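2 proteins. here.
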Amino acid sequence: MGPAKVAVPSPNDFLQKHSKEPKLAPRCLHALFTEKKEEDGKKLLPLSVPQRTYRPVIRIKKNFIIKNAVAVIRGVPKKPRPFCVDTRQGDKYPLEPSGLVPKYINKKNYGVTPKYVTQRNEEIKREEEEYEASVLEQLKKKAMKILSDEERTNILKALKKNWEEINHAYQGLPVLTDTRYKKIHKEELELKLKQLEHDIAAIEKHKNIYIADV
């Protein structure tokens, strides 16, 4: 009964670092040397005759300091960027995008009509010519006929005869127009007389009369 009696470890046998890790067996120097030699042998390329298309890479050493100096000496000097100062405090801005430099009037195509405008004008001109041609064709189809002298004389005689008949009827109306029918009849005769007088005067005034074919 009671706790088990176990031997107490010595203070000199304390637990050390990596003491419980598995330890590998030491390797001899001969094995290490042979493995290294085999690895070096694998890296060596087999000797062979180069092909005819083989071009060896020739490395030329360049002196970049001299090269840069020659480039600076032979190079075109950089032009200073123009600025415009518009205040007495020295406020400045680039001159080229400011609009003060005449840039567009010095272009080769300045003042030249663009191609699309010329093309559009030609199309408009062609459409106008086609429209005029169609109008002339329509006018030729609907050309007016001139009235001959004989027809003009016959029409005048017929109009005057008609006027005389209506005037005779008008003169035969009673003086007293006390009914509605009499008033309407009198107004109709007056309108016919006025229209005939207007037609007679127009034909007598104009010698050449044109009649449209409808």
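next one coming up
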Amino acid sequence: MSSDTRILYLVYCGVAVTVLKEFNVVVTEPYMDEPFHVPQALAYCRGEWSAWDPKITTPPGLYLLSVFLHRVFMFKCNLALLRLTTTLTLFALPPVLTRLLAFHQRRRPPPTLAPSIEALVLSTFPIAWFFGFLYYTEVPSLVSVLCTVVAATQNRHWLAGLLGIASCFFRQNNVIWVLYAYAASQLMRLRFKRGDTVLHDPPALGAGPGDLLRSITNAPKALPELLPAFAPYALVLALFGGFVIWNGGIVLGDKSNHIPSFHVPQLYYFIAFATMIGWPAVVCGEGGLGKLATEVISRMFGSKRRTLMTATISVFMAFTIQRFTIHHPFLLSDNRHYTFYIWRRVFMLHAAVPYLFIPGYQACAWAWWIRVARDQSLLQTLILPVLILPTLLPTPLLEPRYFLLPYILLRAQVVDMQPYGVFFEGLWYAVINIATTYVFLYKEREGVVRFMW
């Protein structure tokens, strides 16, 4: 099997190189956000370290990576080779994902250059794949976070801390995922620790509100077991806190267009996005769609108490949609993105439309809960949704790129994907990637230019 997957990995890399070449042949000038990133990278390549474009909102990790490749491997600093920077990180995605999937599936990972088929498929996730050929921070940021998580799960916590610092050089909010790396590693360790543990953490599917309350109340008793490994992560938090104080906030530049908000519906958009783009992972588990639908209906309407809870949550969601929906100026004006048309032709079709999706949001959330909780404890299943809150709530713009990291971490927790499910997932991703790449490269429109995520 390892020799077969090595061949598939080479095919994956070969296809990526071919797509990158076509991007460079067709899109010969920096596009969309590249006109900000490329000049900044070129300035660093020239040694102009004090130069900084105030319109750039993310740290200089991407540019530093390009300078490293320029100085060590003699890469030229031009648009084509700057884009290669992100494509090289795309090459690193399958081996890293293989180790993350092996952690959740509790099995030994294969050799580094023989990534699993499931990891190869997940590496073609449309958002990651598309932005792996443009000079954007998305894929380097993703890989750096996944490396941090993998190092933590291998109990290499100081390495995880260093990688966590590196990840924050790509995106500031990656500091949240540094905490996730620590929490995920420790919850798995405590779950399978020999002997009794003071932390109450029952299997997720059978747990109730009382279990959650008990887990919270006795968590302080588990601190002596948890704190020894926390030192590297505390250092990351301290350094990040120093950055925030020095910078006067999290955003580096263009603060007027990146004001933190309280965007509750962003959570609903994420769960809908995750289900639409990741439906094979949702429905292709043990028992298939029929069993999953039965469980979701039971969770929502299986008793009077559950029906009342569903109704109460619906009222709360309706209130948050009415109170916290944000019509961002970029979303309303930039017709080069899919979200522009989704917002105008779906959400703005009628004032009632956003509320009609409420039952669907709840059903999707329960479906994902059932899928990821099947082989996890209560706290293991909750830690990701809890940490998604501070990453998505402050973002006022509906932007699929913001969903990349949360989705990959969520999908990695699905441990019982059937082989046919992995096949359909790969096929679905391939259809999306071919369509979006074709439209971007060959369907340039006057007044719209190129159409992209």
